[in-house]
Amino acid sequence: MLDDRKKRVLQAIVEEYIKTAEPVSSNAIMNLEGLECSSATIRNEMAELEKMGYLEKPHTSAGRVPSAKGYRYYVDELLQTDKITLDEIKYISDKLETKINELEEITQIASSTISEITHYTTVSIGPSSDIQKIENIKFVLLSSRMMMGVILTDTGLVKETIIKFDEDITENQVQTLSYMFNNKLKGEPITKIDKPLEKYLVEEMRYSVNLIKPIIEQMKKVVEEESIHLEGANRLFELPEFNSLEVAKNFVNILDEKELMADMLNTGFAKDINVYIGEENEKEELKDFSIVTFKHRIGNKDLGTIGIIGPKRMDYAKVISVMKYISKKLNNENKDEE
Amino acid sequence: MLDDRKKRVLQAIVEEYIKTAEPVSSNAIMNLEGLECSSATIRNEMAELEKMGYLEKPHTSAGRVPSAKGYRYYVDELLQTDKITLDEIKYISDKLETKINELEEITQIASSTISEITHYTTVSIGPSSDIQKIENIKFVLLSSRMMMGVILTDTGLVKETIIKFDEDITENQVQTLSYMFNNKLKGEPITKIDKPLEKYLVEEMRYSVNLIKPIIEQMKKVVEEESIHLEGANRLFELPEFNSLEVAKNFVNILDEKELMADMLNTGFAKDINVYIGEENEKEELKDFSIVTFKHRIGNKDLGTIGIIGPKRMDYAKVISVMKYISKKLNNENKDEE
DNA sequence: TTTTAGCACTCTTTTTACTTGATTGCTAAT
DNA sequence: ATTAGCAATCAAGTAAAAAGAGTGCTAAAA
C-alpha cells in the first residue's frame, strides 16, 4: 500500500502530466496542496514510486511519467469523479433536452456531447443485436416491385430497409406477409431472421422463394449491420502526442477499421464504465491509446455503448465525471418513459 | 500559345511531378519521347515556361514544379482521358454489377470504387433536394404514439423518418393522413414540405396542430438532411505531402466539416466533371488540395455528386478516365431502367 | 529518523559550423 | 538554335560544441 504522501505525489504527477504532456519534475509539483516540502523530499518519493513500478523515466535527466500501473492506480484509487464544472453541467443538460425522435439519437447526442466537452474522439454503437427482441414487423408497399420492411425492437430501436423483388407484388401479398412475419417473429430475438427461417417459410409454409428470399436477405443484413458513429476525429490532432506522424497515421487507420471499434465496444463488460489503459487494450493497434467505454441505458433498456479514444494521459476524471452525469441525467429525465 | 516542344516539356514535368512528388530537373525528362535534346535546351524551355507562369521553382538549385496555371493548362489542353488499364476496367465493372437495392447505393459504390482505384479520398452526396419531386408518401403506425413516414422521390430515392406524437393516434388517422398528404404533395418538389404547408393544413384544413406539426418538422428535417459519405480518408496519408503535419491536420479538419464539403459539391456546375486546382477552390482551407467533382446520372436521372480530394499533383488523367468510364458504364447497363 | 541544501553527473535539445550534392543559369563554342 | 562546360546557389545532411533541465547522492540540519 502507498502511504498518503506517495499517493499525493502520484496523483500530482498523473494530473500534471495529463495537463502538460511533459515529464513532470520534482520542482513542478512541490508546494502543491499536501506537498509542502522540498524538491529533494519529493525526489526521494519519486524514486521509490519508480522502484514500485508506478512511474517511469524517459531518460536520466527528465522528469517522471506515469506508467500503465500508475495510471491504473490513479483510475482505481485516486480519481475524483466530480470534476465537472457548472458550465459543463449546463451544456450537457441543454444538449440532452433536445427533442428526440429515435432512441439511436440519444446515443449520438450523448456521444457528440462527450466529445465536445472532453475534446477526445468518441465512437458509438447501438445495442448489440443478440439481446434485442422483435416487437413488431411491418411491410409497406412502395412501388410495384419494391417494399419497405420495418422492425421495431423491444429496446425501442427502429430498423428499416428497402426490399426489391424481381416480380410485381400486390398490396394483398404485403398484408399477408406482414401478418405472417409478425405472427412468427413477435417476441423472438432479431437474430431469428436467418437462413433457417427462410427454409421453413419456403419449404414448410410453401411461400414463393422469390418473395421470401429477398426479404430475409435484406432484413438479415440490416439487423446485423452495426451502425457506428464517429465524433470529433479531428480533436485528437490538437494533442501534442499527435505531432508524431507515426501516431497520427496509426490513429486514422484505427478510425477506418470500424469492425475493430465495434469489437472493442461489444466486448463483455463487468461494469457500465470500463477503462482500458494503453497496453491493457487487447488490440495491438490501440496500445498507444486509452479507451473508456460507457454502456448507457434508461432504466434497464440498453441504449448502446459509447467509447472515448484518447491518449494514455487522457483526463480520466473529466471523462468519467461526464459519463456519470449523463447517466444520471438520462435516468432522471426519462423516468416516466419506463 | 505554347509551341509544341513547350507543351511537351510542360506535360512531362506535370506527369513526372504527379508521379514522384519531387521537383523535376532538366535531366529527368530529357530523352523522353519527343524530347530528344540536351538538358541545356530543356533548361532554356523551362526558364521560359517559368517566365510565362506555368512553372515554379521552390529554390534556385531545385528542379521545377507546376504552378496552378501549369496544372490548369495541363488539365484543359494536354490531358489524355483514356489512362485506365484493363485490370481497372475489370475491377470497376465487377463492382458496378453488385446487386443494388437503393439508388443511393450506386453513388456509394461508385464513390468507393473511385477511391480504391485512384487512392484518393472521395466524398459523395445525394441529389440536391430542390430538384427532387415527391412520387409517393406513406405513413405507417409503429406504436401508439409513433409512426414512420416514408417519401419516395422521382429520382428513386427513399427517405424515411420516425415521427413521435404527444398523444395516441389510431390506424384510421394514419390512413387519412397518408391519403391527404399524397393528394396534396404527389408530383410536388420535396421542398414543399415546409411551414406554409403546416399552416395551410392546420388553419384551412382544420387538422390538429398536435398531429401536423411533428410530421412536418420531422419530414422537413429528413428532406433537408444531406447524407454525406466518406471513403478512403486514410488513403491520403500515404502521400508524401502528408508528411507535413500542417497539411495532415488541415485535411482532417476538412473532413470533419461536412457542411463545407456539401457546399463544395452542390456549387452549380457547367459540366458533369469539374476540376478545381488548389487556389481555385473558393474555400481557404482547400487551397492545398485539388478537387474533382463528378455529377453522375442514369439517363437524365440525377444520382448525386462525388468529389475526389487529392493533392494538387493529383493524377487528373486517371481520375477523369475512371469517372468517364463509370459514367459510360452506368448508362449502358441501366438503359432498360429508363 | 526525516528532511533539506548543495553540487556533480547525465542526457536531451539547441546552436553553430562545415560538407555534400543536386541543379540551375550563363557563356562561349558548335 | 543547340549544346557542352562550369561557376554559383541553396537545401539537406553531418558533426561537434554549448546550453539547459533534472536527477541522485552526500552530508548537514531539523
Brief characterization of the structure:
2 copies of one chain form a homodimer. Helix content of chain A is 45%, strand content 19%. By secondary structure, chain A is an alpha+beta fold.
Number of strands of chain A: 10
DSSP strand content of chain A: 15-25%
Largest sheet of chain A: 5 strands, antiparallel
Integer average pLDDT of chain A: 91
Largest interface: A-B, 31 and 30 residues
Number of helices, counting only DSSP H or I runs of 4 residues or more of chain A = 12
Provide the gyration radius of chain A in Å: 26 Å
Low-pLDDT stretches of chain A are: none
Structural classification of chain A: alpha+beta
**Elements of chain A, N to C (H/E):** HHHEEHHHEEEEHHHEHHEEEH
- The termini of chain A sit apart by 44 Å
Helix content range of chain A: 40-55%
Q: What's the arrangement of strands in the largest beta sheet of chain A? A: 7-3-10-9-8
Shape of chain A: elongated
Oligomer: homodimer
